[in-house]
Fold these 4 entries.
Entry 1:
Amino acid sequence: MNIEIKSPEEAEMKKFLEERHDAEAKRILRFLNMPDLSRAEGSPLKEIVERASKVNSLEGFDVIQIPEIIPTNILFDLFNMPPGHPARSKSDTYYIGDDYVLRTHDTVFWYYYLNYPEIKERIANKEILGVICYGKVYRKDEIDRSHMNVFHQFGGLHIGPDDKKTITPEDLKNTLSEVARSIFGDVNFRFYDHNFPYTDPSFEMEAEINGQWMEMLGSGMARKSVLANFGLTGYHGWAFGFGLERLAMASMSLPDIRLLWSEDPRIKKQLRLGNKYIPVSKYPPITRDISFVADKNFIPNNYFDLLRDLGLPAGKAGGDLIEEVGLIDKYENAEKFGEAKTSYAYRIVFRSNERTLTSGEVDEIMSKIYSETAKQFKAELR
């Protein structure tokens, strides 16, 4: 069964954002309007979804599509992340007001699935349930070739009545082994104990790709206390989730996450799982430094959002011109800068995956960066 959850609250929050004119609102709307690569024809992320969905252990599972704007009490509280939990930090999460956020994980689909009327009927009949969910998630993050603040996840949940079927960690590991082989072929993999707020026991899975062990996904047995938060008792089972970009990049030896968003036909035709990526050309980088003094409450991830905004070519949905931002100096000197002030120096590396940048266009972007750094962060440029 295919389930799509429509949220009146999400529509209201989008309208609220559209009525605002601040940089954060425009940024969030841009994120929401970016394509979902897990559903985009020709994307290797969609190819991973298709392969994983077809393994024997997931055959017949429901597929659910959920809202991208989620109330905090659902996204966090119901999943054992109470107020004060690091995951709720505004330095890592995109808030819309105080009570709504862009979803930071796709495990929240448990709530929407288990509260769907037809599923509640099946629970009343003590049926065994299985569901997968995939799509975009959002987290503030650093800028480098491995991270973006808009990315994609794929998750699964399989539960059954305690008195009808026993679902074990071995069942989970067998399922994940099938998923790994569907993506990478006959590879070595291993599990080790981990800790997640909504599963216990929990496991990380690693796969050996190109001679190196790579973290592939998180998983575990669904915590009964979390299921009880949704009003479900007398059920048990397993759950898992993984990021699609990490696996796609490993499969193709892709050096830069921005390539997954490229519209360059020379790049797009290479983006197939198992196809080793060959650079179309190594365009040269252009490096610029910026230093400034800001208040101690300065949040680097918020600054990286600004840089991403200003480094985005007009008309592009993803894949900005800033390849990496590194902190090269940070220090405090109350006598020189004043109390509660900190000096920061960042090195910004500009590089396009599709063409050679000119010093002139980089200087134009840097001019905006200087101006907006001073304006938005009340920073003193040095």
Note: The chain has 13 helices and 15 strands.
Entry 2:
Amino acid sequence: MDVVETCGKETTLSSGEPSNKRSIPSIDDDEVVGFENDAEIIMKKLTGTTKELDVLSIFGMPGLGKTTLARKVYNNPSIVNHFDVKVWCVVSQAYTRTMLLVEIFKQAINKECKIKENDNVADMLRKILIGKRYLIVLDDIWEVEAWEDLRLCFPRGENGCRVVVTTRIEQVAKHLLHRSDPYSLRFLTMEESWVLLQKKVFRGENCPSNLVEAGLQIAQHCKGLPLVVVLIAGIIAKMRREASL
């Protein structure tokens, strides 16, 4: 059984309900090769002059780095200082509305608390957000219903509030169209893939000249997918460590 901690008495959820406690991934700067321009565009949309609530969708196939890009923006000092409330919530394919609301509420109040079983968390969340400039990231949404389950909890107001959604499904991104068009994440160029591969394998050291040709071929075979580059780089780095023993 999972126990949800919120304000008041504790609520016990059945073991069949997935917990939304996936930790936010730790991302180094070397994992965002090629995203500098993308991040700049998104940050301008988030801090722009539009006062009404805006929803920005980042979409693309798995492995393109949607979450990585969103995290880079989320952690940028200009974004951190711009918003009163910041929330990062992983939705994923299997979710429950209650767990999502509780997770968002806990981050919005920025403290541990307990909730009574009959509390209306959606209403509590809405009241907490009213009057504040908030940024809520909903990472990895798979279906429109997930957004419909949550959207009424986000007050519109005119405080420059923003919601960022990452999704691999273009139809979901288009459904969420608000004021900003969905942002389609591009593939890395071969050169960017090579830079990322070197950084992950050699950790700041230069690639030996006798390995450059093979490395370029590997980078090309990654087809511009950052996740594939990182995974292959991890395998190569492990092989190098074992060979040096």
Note: The chain has ten helices and seven strands.
Entry 3:
Amino acid sequence: MEKEDTSNTRQWKKCGPCMAGNCNHECYITCIIGLYSCHWEATPEENSRHGFCCCSLTEQLFYPFLIIAFCVSVLLLFVWIETSNEYHGFDWVVYLVTGYWYFWSLLLLSLFGILFAYTSLLVILGFLLVWEGYELYLHWNHKILIVLVILICTFFMAVLCIYWNDRWLTFGLSLKVFAPYLHLSCITMMVLLSYPVAFYLVTLEQEAIFRRDKITHHKRKRSKIFSRLTKLRG
């Protein structure tokens, strides 16, 4: 009995790290899927590593809207940060119009930061799901919020173009200063984002090779069976 107990404890010790790793990975996948698609159960059917595409046609058509929302939120946040010297003047103009004093500039800065964080989080979650080989299914709540982000950013950019056109000159000058750093950061981001795409293409190629070999093997097997049948008939 003691030997059996010791052997069982050894087996549990050996299987413990593997089980812990699997549980951690499942929790990680469940968290990503839950945040992206609001489905808090990672089912095997959602895994599309052996499929031909990472998402449906609807998701393919809507994913550019997510990228547009991310780019517009980044642009608006950068422009508003560059106008930090004019925050007091902006608050004063709003006070003259509304008659109520408040730090509207900081409120808008917080709003633009939240929009940028939200869109960047969805983009990162989408690439992580592609990296893990799961289907992209963005929940309708996220889709509605993404459309609202695009509308809000477009509205504020239109307001800046109409009533505060000088800010775009400041944006151009600051962009010239930060252009090298922006270039390096874009290169780094593209390199990091290219890994999931390359991994997915390699997976598709392996799947195509596997299916081709399987089809050829099936054809050879059928030809052998037919040849045997013809010999038996003869």
Note: Confidence is low (pLDDT under 50) at residues 48-52.
Entry 4:
Amino acid sequence: MFPRVPDQHKIDKPLVPNGLGVIYVLFTTVYLFLGYFLGIAESGNGVSVPLTLAVCILFGGFMGLLDDWMDLKWRYKAFMPLIAALPLVYLAREYALRTAISLPIIGIIDFGEAYYFLVIPLLVMVVTNTVNMLGGLNGLETICPAIILIGLMALSPLSHLLLMLGPLILWLALAAFNFKGKIFVGNSGSFAIGMTIASYAVIADLKSSLLISIIPYVFNSSLILLSVFLFGKKAAVTLDGNKLVSTHRRSLITLITYQRPMTERQVVIAVSLLIAAFVAIAVLTELLW
């Protein structure tokens, strides 16, 4: 049913079903529509939180499918999430969501109207693309976003938590199969979960927690982009037997495996623990700051 692609980080390169992220997109859309009809989350001023979230996730999945189909260039993928930010901007204005962001050391920054038309689109664009860029290993593009989403949900009110409870359970099931190398979620999954995280953080007003949680993602993307733009070189790991190793430091993965052979699972666990550490910092900051 799903197209099969070779697992490049296995010696025998087995063919693995790809694109199962569409299951998450379809399930989440139906789940959120049911949430709307059952009145799980508030709706007012003609704007529905579940439907807005569903639209954003649908667009993320569509963008991923488009990328799988057409192999979009990064200059197009970078800005496409801005379209998905439009319903979020409308919802934020109608609900008069807080326009200030509280950051440790820096303090509170109130962006005013610029929050709606500048900060929200930038958040969506950065989060969606950075989540998509940290992948390529079994479990990496599913486990790490799940950790961030769990952290955000832990800080959310019950109504918002229920919005993502079902989708999170399904995503964790996909992550388990992905970690075992049984499936790939593909770009449809990585873009959709990135859009989920960004949209949910805006709706639940957890912007500060999101910014702290995605620091490893931003660091990874910065390394990749600097290597490409300044040196014209891409990050890559080499398969040495059953272990991965790199001879350069052009991404978070190659930094971890630089002259240090590690199995694929060891790398994924290391990155996941790093993400979990920043999520823990974000949660503690939100609770104590």
Note: The chain has a mean pLDDT of 92.
